[in-house]
């Protein structure tokens, strides 16, 4: 059956997970590496306790380099970047190689890249330089913070040219409430921070987004959303109907997160989901941005510094509390994580100038090939 074009029941094309999967598929992979936080206002979920946060939806236009040297643009709710961290010097920077940085001879100059690949090409597997993909979000952290003067390594207050101190909002843990450092200081019960997730944690966040999407943003209902069908966005033909399909959930996930060709009209594109809500007439799937979440990390059983991200609970979908609404603006993550200039990288890591060619042809990702065709009833046609 065809569901037609009743906008009311159409989900916007490209929710968070669809968007993230498209982005991940469109860009080549890097190896993993360590990475230490070095920015202020950088959130990292606690290992001891849960942190209550709300992730804010941003809009960032990013460029994705393609194998043929072309660049495609995509708008994302989060900001992806690459971090280099020198494990011996304990200094990190943002990659300056640009969208074509992973293709031989096509990237912009980046000392992090040069050191990383010089080691790899020389057969040194565990060189000091890491290259890590990160995805940054803005969050509200619901916790007590105090506004204190920044101090340097000697404990002296840092001041600008006019002799005014630099201020930082610092987390006040419950046991620190009477700490002299915070007495008489301006306090508040939240702070806006940025949160960078490596690939593993980001994937976990997408899994939670899927769970959260069972709830309705429109009425706040918990787990009230039902998928009726996935339709062609051009002709409205229902290509997957969960009630009758023979596709496995995994296959449905796969076909609904990339372009498919409609056997009915021949057009190619993302499918559109028709949903209903058991509680209201205007169903909208909630996203990770629509709920307050309690988040923590636990040490991975694999040992080392590896951790797993856990979201033990989340609220029903609801707008951000009025008290925080005026502060709940996404940070300029594209500015915060803008590339560290080559000269600055030289200052931090020394050397350089050898301009080793960036070679990583061994990492080029086999991607491409046409979109699969999906026939009526969800039968893949290869
Ligand atoms: Zn780089
Ligand atoms: Zn069609
Ligand atoms: Zn609803």
Quickly count the domains. Answer: 2
Figure out the total of helices: 7
Cα-to-Cα separation, first versus last residue: 23 Å
Query: Which residues form runs of ≥5 with pLDDT under 50?
Result: 4-13, 29-38, 356-373, 375-382
Shape: globular
Instruction: Determine the strand fraction and express it as a percent band.
Output: 25-35%
Q: Short summary of the structure?
A:
The chain is of the alpha+beta class and 382 residues long. It is 15% helix and 27% strand. Bound molecules: zinc ion (ZN) (3 copies).
Question: What secondary-structure arrangement, pairings included, does this model have?
Answer:
Blueprint: H1 16-26, E1 42-43, E2 51-56, E3 60-65, E4 71-76, E5 79-86, E6 91-94, H2 111-121, E7 129-141, E8 145-149, E9 167-171, E10 187-188, E11 191-197, H3 199-212, E12 225-231, E13 238-240, H4 249-255, E14 260-262, E15 268-269, E16 272-277, E17 292-299, E18 307-314, H5 322-325, H6 333-336, H7 342-349, E19 373-374, E20 380-381
Parallel strand pairs: 1-11, 14-19
Antiparallel strand pairs: 2-7, 2-17, 3-4, 5-6, 5-7, 7-11, 8-9, 8-10, 12-13, 12-16, 14-15, 17-18, 19-20
The structure holds zinc ion (3 copies).
Describe the structure.
With 382 residues, this protein is α+β, with helices and mostly antiparallel strands. The chain folds into two domains: 322 residues, no CATH class; 45 residues, no CATH class. Helix content is 15%, strand content 27%. The chain has seven helices and 20 strands. Strand 17 and strand 18 form a beta hairpin. The protein is globular, with a radius of gyration of 24 Å. Bound molecules: zinc ion (ZN) (3 copies). One zinc ion binds next to loops.
